[in-house]
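Table 4 source record.
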Amino acid sequence: MPGSLELPSDELALLDYMAYGMIAVSIPTFLLLTFVTTALYGRNSTQFIVPGFLPARLAWVVQELPAFVVPCLLLLATPADRIAYLPNRVLLALFMVHYFQRSLIFPMLIRGGKPTPLIPFLLALLFCVYNGYMQARYLSQYAQYPDGWLTDPRFIVGILMFAVGMAINLHSDHVLRNLRKPGETGYKIPQGGMFTYVSGANFFGETLEWAGFAVACWSLQAAAFATFTTLNVGPRAYTHHKWYLQKFDSYPKGRAAIIPFLL
């Protein structure tokens, strides 16, 4: 029954604290990934540092699914007064569509995939629960938008950024999945789409996507998510870029790491 789950008495303040907490955590995350270690997945995974692995497909499903399931459960079990308003529905739907694709479609398309270390898996799982609650509760119960928000330049620009970013993300994943033909081994240079301009095309797409979400939502919670995403995937893109330059003598020297023509 809707409204049957007991919630904190000052939940809006809690959601603000959660957003500030996410921003605070993003800073040491950035410093750690930039100056201390790389993200421990894919070619960078190592059993010496993180004992215990999960199959790639299973790890993706389980770690990403809470960001879709938690909003579903909250809509069913908690008050959601603002979800009756179209801007709130559209914005929460964007968040949930992304994670539906990320948790239930993307993993089924993985070809092989190196096992995922246990600790990064658990951290991703925790983040998706945390962020799923924060975004869903704010948009369904507290976010108030003025009349005409659907035609506000912030909403329009944000939605366009989100759509373009998601399209880049999906296309980049497709390129990476199809780098090797059946039976081939080894690494190849990604080509086409945003890979023409940046080494981390998928990371660029994800950063643009959630930056657009933050603009369209115009909220502290969405801005915190966009900040964390940028500071989390930026160092990954730079690490990939350096690896490609070292691995391939023929790697395009004009290709940037994550921001076309700049970085």
